Amino acid sequence: MPMFFTTPTDGTTLAYEDYGTGTPIVFVAGWSLPTDMWERQTPFFLEQGYRCVLLDRRGHGRSDRPSAGYDTDTRADDLAALIEHLDLRDAILVAHSTGGAEVVRYLARHGADRVSRIALLGAAIPFMRQTEDNPIGVPDGLIDATLADLRADRAQWLADRAQGYYATHLGTRVSPATIDIEMRRSMSCSPIAALEIQRLAFRTDHRADVAAVPVPMLLLHGVADQSIPIDLSSRQTVKLAPDAELKEYPNAGHGLYQSHADRVNADILAFIKA
């Protein structure tokens, strides 16, 4: 059963799960996904003796679906509210995709007094938009076209990208049932949240956040990631962050937390114990 707490910023009720004892690992889901996305990670780390805390961000899973509050600052403050609600100390933050943006913004806004290190999978940082000082980024026209497609038929948009999400064309073994379930999970997200967070993922500049991260950072990224291309993200992040390590997965896409779960779990565990 999930547990709930109310955010101090606007009274939104958020759902979370809390398992085990020991050093806490806080799992932050990716865009449009609930905490269930971590089903290959939670049992593993519980068996290793860690406490696993998982948050359904606003608009996702069993949390409230307000009309506002999907900006990066508020989402980072929601994460801070959970950590403070549970009075977590020496926490490890593990995040996927846009969850990585929330983690680095959390550190920028709230500091690292409660956090010992972070592990980010296919994170949408440091800056995805094409600008004069970021010529390799995604052009505004392409971002707008993506948002228009999501508005028109979100289910079809997800279906068109399902195989690429897992890089099945490179031989990764992900069952059709798993792909179907993950699409259903993504569709459970509020359409308002899905559109606004997707828009901000490609237009929010996290370069200053990344450059100021005060704890060790592990970056795990699929070279075949079509959602958050590695050249725009982790290969730039590792150059900016003070203490970062990048591990590249040659035949992985954005869904490496499932397609490469055993290696992901082993890499995170080694990083925690280092």
UniProtKB/TrEMBL annotation:
Keywords: Hydrolase. InterPro entries: AB_hydrolase, AB_hydrolase_1, AB_hydrolase_fold. Signal peptide: none annotated. Residues 24-257 form the AB hydrolase-1 domain. One of its GO terms (molecular function) is hydrolase activity. Pfam families: Abhydrolase_1. This is Alpha/beta hydrolase. It comes from Nocardia tengchongensis.
